[in-house]
Amino acid sequence: MIVGAGPAGLTVGNILRAAGIDCVVLECETRAFIEQRPRAGVLEEWAVRGLERRGLAAGLLARAERHTACEFRFEGERHRFPYTELTGDHHFVYPQPLLVSDLVREYADVRGGDIRFAVGDVRLHDVHSDHPAVSYLCPDTGQRRVLHCAFLAGCDGARGVSRAALSADRVRVARHDYGLGWLALLAEAPPSSDCVLFGMHPDGFAGQMPRSPQVTRYYLQCPPGDDPANWPDDRVWEQLHRRLAATDAAPLAEGTLIEKRVLDMHDYVVEPMRHGRLFLAGDAAHLVAPIAAKGMNLALHDAFLLGDALAAHCAGLPGAEAGLAGYSQASLRRVWDYQEFSQWLSEVYHGAATGDPFRAGTALARMRRLFTSPSAAAAFAEQYLGTAGRY
Ligand SMILES: Cc1cc2nc3c(=O)[nH]c(=O)nc-3n(C[C@H](O)[C@H](O)[C@H](O)COP(=O)(O)OP(=O)(O)OC[C@H]3O[C@@H](n4cnc5c(N)ncnc54)[C@H](O)[C@@H]3O)c2cc1C
Fold it and tell me: How far does the centroid of ligand 1 lie from the alpha carbon of residue 163, in Å?
């Protein structure tokens, strides 16, 4: 049983179906809704290759843009950071709804997987026993249905029910609150640059992420819990122009703002990620604020580990138990590495706007080091692209 049809749950489901294993995916939203929900867009090359190896990247490889650099803007100047030159790896820009659509189509329409949309009130039962089960309200009849299973994959994101099914004495939840927010915006406008832009400014951080030739994501640092109504379009564009201003920079292309919401920047990590026959994966187990665009990549990493381990177990392969037993630790090593990088990057992005001249000075020193020290640049590129040989 898989709870949640996001990148994590759908990837696990596809791996199981490819191995001929029966599974059911339960999703509380409709198919149309999850195929349009805007969120992430940046995938690391190892994640793309992982999807490709499992036959899940045809659409992505045909349509994603490959990025080779990002640009930092501070003190009114532009500084291009060519990460592909340093690592050989790319970032692939592919909107999350397109990836989710590809994964649903492959799971349900090609591999014949069972997926039930718009289910209500999902509950997990007997998760610490050898006979777990899931129940839900059928959207057509309103009746509760119970499904028994060998394993449960809790892939239901940050607001799901899987994590809550664990008793507090069995888990450790580590949390970090950055005490700031990002106004997340989607504009019907072409990107203003061929790469991702990060602006470090005394008024606050601003970012630009190309999503497609017609749509661009922008971020503006704002107080946590801020109301999007405090950000009329004129104020948004004035602040974006101001915070991303730099010598010789092309003017930002304005357009209709089709999404405007405030994300409070916080992280958590649930340890361990396995409890008996319940395995948490993706945002259900760990949330990483979108500062370094890591969440969907981590969700895919979990899904590869978990899907492969479950498939090996069901096939009775030698060493299969070690894969399941080691799942939590193998995932968490990359999770903690990415959390640390996000925390480091947050100080770089937001230091200038703290009002504290010491933090502003050290944030600027970190940034300048990337352009003066080849070893600092190489280390940053490795973390930004997730290319370390081991975690
Ligand atoms: C604005 C924004 C930008 C981002 N940008 C990036 C980026 O560029 N790169 C990156 O790597 N990450 C990024 N992320 C993070 C990324 O979107 C998430 O980490 C990713 O979606 C996690 O995938 P998941 O499958 O674990 O969870 P989700 O995508 O949240 O999927 C969980 C699924 O479970 C369903 N569900 C929830 N509760 C229940 C329930 N009770 N029963 C049944 N189903 C349920 C949900 O409807 C959902 O479909 C961004 C996030 C945001 C908000």
Answer: 14
